[in-house]
Amino acid sequence: MRGLRGFVTVVCSLLLAAVLGACSSDNSQDEKSSIKLAEVTRSIFYAPQYVALENGFFEEEGLSVDLTTTWGGDKTMTSLVSGSSDIALVGSETSIYVHSQGANDPVINFAQLTQKDGTFLVSKKAHDNFSWDDLRDSNFLGQRKGGMPQMVGEFVLKQNGIDPHQDLNLSQNVDFGNIPGAFQSGDYEYVQLFEPTASKFEKQGVGHVLASFGEASGKVPYTVFMAKQSFLNDNPETAEKFTRAIFKAQKWVENHSSEEVAEVIQPYFEDTDSDIIADSVERYKDSGAYALNPVLDREEWNNLKDIMDEAGELPEDIKHDTLVNTEIAEKIMNE
């Protein structure tokens, strides 16, 4: 449970450092038109969100969305709990971690954006006939303990008969932002990478994409829009408008080519070539990573808990109805 303890420790520390006024701010604004949105990182994995922003889907709903990248699940949840943001885009496991600490105002998952893990297995060497068994005794650069990438990675490896802590030389001491550079310069043979880094490495000849962890692990509520229960109670129409805009974007991404998606979201990735963005979007489409609608169903929630439990990071068995609101998304879909 070190991952959970570390997460809680960081969140508590950041909350103590936050402005006390933010913690006691009044969340009862009537149907607010301005939304402060915090995303856990900047990623092509979140393409539908950027499509909603760039195509004016939020504006069509009368919403002005101010997007901030908070760089990390602990910082994102601190922003949400302290009132610095109204809605957060982050992994559902964080809502479970916060709830397990006895939050008086629970964080509720209300609109799902991605439905599978967004990482890919990348190797320094090409493999003509890759088998998960090839990873045995290799130097593997992993992700942060307690985070969804690492938990899904371990789940997939175990499903393929590999104990990541016994059968690999597993390293987890590199910060998220430094993982690509460490893999490139170090003696690691394999790594878990998000896009567009995986496609960039492949194009540069630095690495070779071998498998999708998302395809191998099945559907989970990997990245979800969430808000405090008080915000959803006080701003029901705003939550519906927000979800409606996201659903429009999900359908737009599904019905347009990867090149068209890349053109729309290019402003969010100015340092990345459009062909790399398109390749990344195509990989996510092929793996079924983008959710086709905002409903977080019970089966996905239970799959998430199984993955957390397998990793030893599930603090308690929290039911779907406790931290998930599907009524908003279902209402939007039935309009």
TrEMBL record:
Tree of life domain: Bacteria
Chief location of this protein within or outside the cell: periplasm
Name by which UniProt lists this protein: ABC transporter substrate-binding protein
Entry's family note: Belongs to the bacterial solute-binding protein SsuA/TauA family.
Keywords: Signal
Record localization: Periplasm
Secretion signal, residue range per the UniProt entry: 1-24
Organism: Salinibacillus aidingensis
Entry-linked PANTHER family: ALIPHATIC SULFONATES-BINDING PROTEIN-RELATED, TAURINE-BINDING PERIPLASMIC PROTEIN
PROSITE patterns according to UniProt: PROKAR_LIPOPROTEIN (PS51257)
Family matches, as SUPFAM superfamilies: Periplasmic binding protein-like II (SSF53850)
